[in-house]
């Protein structure tokens, strides 16, 4: 069952890359396995238009955990009605556009947002983690370390 879910997601990602005319070496989307029952992926400094195609191709409901810069850009360009994703979870600094949405949760730091994920998880589902702000290396390392703790 788990392999079938990953195969669906891999096919969806390949399709998104093809649509966006990217080779697989040009994307930084990484698969991490399961977290709280959801297939978890991370993307450091994502290209928003490629990210949009990738999200569109996910076969399951999606929770996006990220900082305000890419979530705001995505909402402004692709999800103005707030119906493309199940939930957005923003950590760190937050713009008003993010605070004023019903389907968006805001937490002051990454640790609190990860703790809150348990309340927003479902299976089958996709967890997308992105970061591109000044402490993005730390955030990416912290997120990746969660999976080594689970093994």
Offer a concise description of the structure.
With 151 residues, the chain is α/β, with parallel strands linked by helices.
Spell out the blueprint of helices and strands.
Blueprint: H1 2-19, E1 30-35, E2 38-44, H2 48-57, E3 62-66, H3 68-78, E4 87-91, H4 96-99, E5 104-107, H5 110-117, E6 126-131, H6 136-150
Give a verbal description of the structure:
The protein has 151 residues and is of the alpha/beta class. It has a single domain (2-150), classed as Alpha-Beta Complex (Protein-Tyrosine Phosphatase, Chain A). It has six helices and six strands. The chain has helices at residues 2-19, 48-57, 68-78, 96-99, 110-117, 136-150, and strands at residues 30-35, 38-44, 62-66, 87-91, 104-107, 126-131. It has a six-stranded mixed sheet with strand order 1-2-6-3-4-5, sandwiched between helices.
